[in-house]
Design brief:
Strand order of the largest sheet: 1-2-3-8
Helix content: under 10%
Oligomer: single chain
Distance between the termini: 35 Å
Radius of gyration: 14 Å
Largest sheet: 4 strands, antiparallel
Shape: globular
Number of domains: 1
Strand content: over 45%
Number of helices: 1
Structural class: mainly beta
Length: 114
Amino acid sequence: MSVSEYVAAVAGLDLVNLHWDERGQEVSASFEGPIHPPFTPDEPGHDHMRVRLSFTGVSAMRVTAWSHIPVDRVTIARDGDLVMAAFTGPETAVECTAAAVEMFILPTYYAAPM
């Protein structure tokens, strides 16, 4: 997949988890939100989806701010053979440089009304 396809997949979804596994040099970013094209529900009535991006071979990680306030911008770009990712918001700034990124589409679900 191209970097633009990863960005399109998480557009409109909320970042719900950002995890750094320093043992495996991996950063995982999990997103949830309403299903959007080109994705389709796994079952009738499902209206939400989950996507996980796994950045592997992390060679640099920088956290300059961290907050519970949701991020409002996810940037993913290629720089030669490397993948650069940034997760930023009003009080959050996390950046990583990785060798690769892989996307996992998890089962869709019905989000109960709040």
